[in-house]
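Trying the structure run again after the queue cleared.
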Amino acid sequence: MEITGIFSAIIVGLIIGALGRLIIPGKQHLPIWLTLVLGIVAAFVGGWIATIFATAFLWVLLVQVLVAAGIVYLADGFYAKNAA
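Done. Tokens:
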């Protein structure tokens, strides 16, 4: 991955983290900064998964958002158990 790809993944990851949080119903217990960090991770992981199967931009974006939603959902479950 080139440096421009890394920067774009970080920027897109911030947006994807917010979208992943919006997809999950109910109140989340994660702080917003952690959601954004998880979005960046999801952008890298989702981009890697999507490029294995296809390279269309919308497909990559869709996979990244779904990965972000899954990661936020799992992390929220762990965070809520530890906070209680």
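The radius of gyration is 13 Å. Worth checking whether this holds up in the mutant runs.
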